[in-house]
Amino acid sequence: MLKLHTIVCSTRPGRVGLSVGRWFHAAAQGHGGFEAELVDLADFALPVYDEPHHPRLQRYEQAHTRAWAASVAAADAYVFVTPEYNYGPPPSFVNALTYVYREWHHKAAGFVSYGGVSGGMRAVQAERLMLTSLKVMPMAEQVSIPMVGQQIDGEGVFTPTEGQGKGAAAMLIELARWAGALKPLRAEA
């Protein structure tokens, strides 16, 4: 079975990304086409890139890098749960991409973005470009959540709209197709 990592990209205190990530992770489990895992980028405590060697060499000296590399390598596909900060990706996302290189190759990725009025879509545009340089195939389908705070209750539970639920289902279908189609390329590596 294909393995999907739903990666919560915000690491800041008070973030809402974990609430959104839990919702999407449950949707991925319900889809049935993936072995789904929720990955919290904050758990890896990655400092600004601190490896002495280029990531393409895979000569990792730091324990946090080795743990992150193993997590990235284990997945066939990713969904990035990402906020938009100042019209762009959160620095934690950019830093996490930088840490490893070959581990990303020939995999599929989707996005669940959130924020204010734009719902994080401007961040996703930049993230798509970054991922293609890592040989990751970003899906056209995505879930955008504008004014995300209005969909989180006092207990921190995110409730999607009907359209967001349908968008998640459509994205999961495409992710499974692409992750399966790219599998022979991953096997060659």
Tell me what the structure shows:
With 189 residues, the protein is an alpha/beta fold. The protein has one domain: Flavodoxin domain (Rossmann fold), CATH 3.40.50. Helices cover 40% and strands 20% of the residues. It has five helices and six strands. It has helices spanning 17-31, 63-74, 91-99, 121-132, 162-188, and strands at 2-8, 34-40, 77-83, 107-115, 136-138, 143-146. Strands 1, 2, 3, 4, 5 and 6 form a six-stranded parallel beta sheet that branches. Strand 4 (107-115), helix 4 (121-132) and strand 5 (136-138) form a beta-alpha-beta unit. The mean pLDDT is 97.
Please give a handful of descriptors for the protein shown.
globular, 6-stranded parallel beta sheet, Rossmann fold, alpha/beta, 189 residues
Outline the secondary-structure elements:
Elements: E1 2-8, H1 17-31, E2 34-40, H2 63-74, E3 77-83, H3 91-99, E4 107-115, H4 121-132, E5 136-138, E6 143-146, H5 162-188
Parallel strand pairs: 1-2, 1-3, 3-4, 4-5, 4-6
Distance, first to last CA: 19 Å
Largest sheet: 6 strands, parallel
CATH architecture: 3-Layer(aba) Sandwich
**Tally of structural domains:** 1
- The counted number of beta strands is 6
Radius of gyration: 16 Å
CATH topology: Rossmann fold
Oligomer: single chain
Helical percentage: 25-40%
Strand content: 15-25%
> SSE string, helix = H, strand = E?
EHEHEHEHEEH
Mean pLDDT value: 97
What would CATH call the class?
Alpha Beta
Report low-confidence residues grouped into runs of 5 or more.
none
CATH superfamily: Flavodoxin domain
User: Helical segment tally?
Assistant: 5
Structural class: alpha/beta
Shape: globular
